Amino acid sequence: MTGLDCRVVVPEREVDVAFAVPAGQTLALLGANGTGKSTVLDALAGWLRPESGHATLGTEVLFDGGSWVPARHRRVGYLTQDPQLFPHLSAEANVAYGLDRAGVVGRAARRRVAREWLERVGVGHLAGRRPHQLSGGQAQRTAIARVLASDPRLVLLDEPLSSLDAQVVPQVRALLAEVLTGRTTVLVTHHAADAEALAHCTHRIARADPVHPPTA
Amino acid sequence: MRRALSALAAVSALATTGCTGGPAAQDSPAGDVTLTVFAAASLSDVFEEIGEDFEAEHPGVTVRFNVAGSSGLVQQITAGAPADVFASADEPTMARAVSAGAVSGEPRPFASNVLTLVTPPDNPAGITSLADAAAEGVDLVVCAPQVPCGSATATLAGDAGLALDPVSEESSVTDVLGKVTSGEADAGLVYVTDATRAGEAVHTVDPDRARSAVNTYPIATLADSERAGLAEAFVEHVLGTQGQEVLRHAGFGHP
Amino acid sequence: MPASVTRDVPVRPPRALTVIGVLGGAAILLPFVALVAGVDLTRLPRLLTSPAALDALGLSVRTSLAATAVCLVLGIPLALTLTRLEFPGRSVARSLVLLPLVVPPVVGGIALTEAFGRRGLVGEHLHVLGLEIAFTSTAVVMAQVFVSLPFLVVALEGSLQTRGEAHERTALSLGASPARTFRTVTLPLMAPGLLAGTVLTFARALGEFGATITFAGSMQGTTRTLPLQVYLERETDPEAAVALSLLLVVVALAVITLAYGRKRVTIS
């Protein structure tokens, strides 16, 4: 199991955040709008290169003063507010997309595993549909399956329930609670209910955290 | 001199027809008359000069030129473009304007032009005759048979008993010249006047032997002209001593 | 109430604007209507099947297809570089790519001659190697690529920018290599822009005249494409010119219909 230890410093956005997540646990990152929660996730995913700071996952350095691992080598699963399903691929092909990295070899095996994941998140009957034929809740379930099927060592969730209709939120939240069990996760949310249901610990980013020059 | 003066008076009178001003206007011919001349592309520079001379002789008159390929000009004229005078690069093209009823009176030949062989200044293919230019492996550029300079080219080749093997048949003599001055082509057949105008930019090969195909340039006033007198005066000027001198200077031959 | 079907009330533009809009449409369409009206239908089959016309049509189609293929090979990477790679002077580079769109084609032809002509910057060295471009069909294709590449790049830039990078980032985070991301995500998502851009590119290549006549010359079967044939026919046989023009318009219309007439692929 791999725990996360990180500090992300992005002076342009007045972000200087440090926290640790024990292996297999979920940390809820809380804070008002504009405090840099998404910036922190982008940096951990490898979508944004912070000016300074560090992140280690288990024993592997994701980034520090000198080194930088590109997103595709990090094995960090990132689920954004928008499910970002590939519009030209079926739900099944979307889930199968990351199975290479999970070590699932062969077309038939990938198909089978993708089906299993879709069943597990409750949309097994929609495997052949394109994203525009799915409801918001169905799309988000598919996206959850896609992220977890790729077997990430760290899961990043950015407001995963906020774009869903109110009546499906409890079901998807329960699904997340189930599939995230044992996964090291950072969850950004501003709903106390989400944090309560999903997180083992919380870290609140205060507005205008003082920006210190990074210490070596 | 007296003739010139009386012509001037006549033109001034013409210039004021249609104005409300009485005879007094004769002294101030500021009636701003514009004469529109359609001229073949090869005449562009020389007619500009002739036009300036004509304007100097006829105060208040502005000569405006529309310069293009002769065939295109005939099309514009028959389509009703407002023009007073038409000068064509060859007789067949003028004949088309005549048969369309666009010309008033008889077209009159005013100049002639002959083809000459030109190469880039350094003559990279070492061409000394038309036969050299017709040889295989030489990039020869000529006018397409559809245009006046191309029919002259066909005559020239026929007279010389040569089958030309050009790499390109251009729509205008200007394009032929361009291919030679840029060094793209080894040789090209252009009018003597074009070679003269190009000066140092081309090397002229053996002009005497190339000068067999002659193009005659006719000029005519147009039936729809609203300034027939002034149009006639312009034609007279082109055929007159001063006009002919300018044409000779540019390399044009006698009609 | 006669309305048996529920429908939205459209927001109509002011009436005066509609009138002007119709005039604008007429400005575009009237010349084409006149062109069609000017064709002598009894002579049409013979005019269009003359050896010169068939040579010109065949050459135009062949060179335009080749130019479109070259544009795709060069244009997709160029559009990606200009939209997805940050480098100093990028905005300047993006404007420069549009130059052939705004420069008169004859200027393009002169520029191509200066570059690839026998005495040109690059052409000089090609000449030494025994490679001659001038007066060959290759020169026609090069002129077509020069003028039509910007059409493709602009179309692709548009589709890349509206689409954004989110899907590519997602693919990378799922462990895909940049090559796989390009092949399985970027390229398919570009498809609508790619189709429209390809069609425009082909149509522009088909209509290319100025750069070709300046750079490539005009020889039946080798460099005299349909537009050059039209220009030459105009000298002696205006009716044939009109007939060939009609042919060009019909081909262009077919190509545009193919691109814009078909139902757009719906992508959420």
Question: Summary?
Answer:
In chain A, a hairpin with a 4-residue loop joins strand 1 and strand 2. Chain A has 216 residues and is an alpha/beta fold.
Topology:
The complex is a heterotrimer of chains A (216), B (255) and C (268).
Chain A: E1 4-10, E2 15-21, E3 26-30, H1 37-45, E4 52-57, E5 60-63, E6 76-79, H2 91-96, H3 107-120, H4 136-149, E7 154-158, H5 169-179, E8 185-188, H6 192-198, E9 201-204
Parallel strand pairs in A: 3-8, 3-9, 6-7, 7-8
Antiparallel strand pairs in A: 1-2, 1-4, 4-5
Chain B: H1 2-16, E1 33-40, H2 44-57, E2 61-68, H3 70-78, E3 85-87, H4 91-99, E4 103-119, H5 130-134, E5 140-143, H6 148-160, E6 168-170, H7 173-181, E7 187-191, H8 192-198, E8 203-205, H9 207-210, E9 214-222, H10 228-239, H11 241-249
Parallel strand pairs in B: 1-2, 1-3, 5-6, 5-7
Antiparallel strand pairs in B: 3-9, 4-7, 4-8, 4-9
Helix pairs in contact in B: 2-11, 3-4
Chain C: H1 15-37, H2 44-48, H3 51-84, H4 90-97, H5 99-102, H6 105-116, H7 123-128, H8 137-163, H9 166-173, H10 178-207, H11 210-215, H12 226-236, H13 238-261
Q: Any overview of this molecule?
A:
The complex is a heterotrimer of chains A (216), B (255) and C (268). Chain A has 216 residues and is of the alpha/beta class. Chain A has helices at 37-45, 91-96, 107-120, 136-149, 169-179, 192-198, and strands spanning 4-10, 15-21, 26-30, 52-57, 60-63, 76-79, 154-158, 185-188, 201-204. Chain A is 28% helix and 21% strand. The longest helix of chain A has 14 residues, at 107-120. Chain B folds into two domains: 2-112 and 216-249, 3-Layer(aba) Sandwich (D-Maltodextrin-Binding Protein, domain 2), CATH 3.40.190.10; 113-214, D-Maltodextrin-Binding Protein, domain 2 (3-Layer(aba) Sandwich), CATH 3.40.190. In chain B, 42% of the residues lie in helices and 24% in strands. Chain B has helices at residues 2-16, 44-57, 70-78, 91-99, 130-134, 148-160, 173-181, 192-198, 207-210, 228-239, 241-249; strands at 33-40, 61-68, 85-87, 103-119, 140-143, 168-170, 187-191, 203-205, 214-222. In chain B, strands 1, 2, 3, 4, 5, 6, 7, 8 and 9 form a nine-stranded mixed beta sheet that branches. The longest helix of chain B is centred in the N-terminal third of the chain and has 15 residues, at 2-16. In chain B, 47% of the residues are buried. Residues 1-30 of chain B have low confidence and may be disordered. Chain C contains 13 helices and no strands. Residues 263-268 of chain C have low confidence and may be disordered.
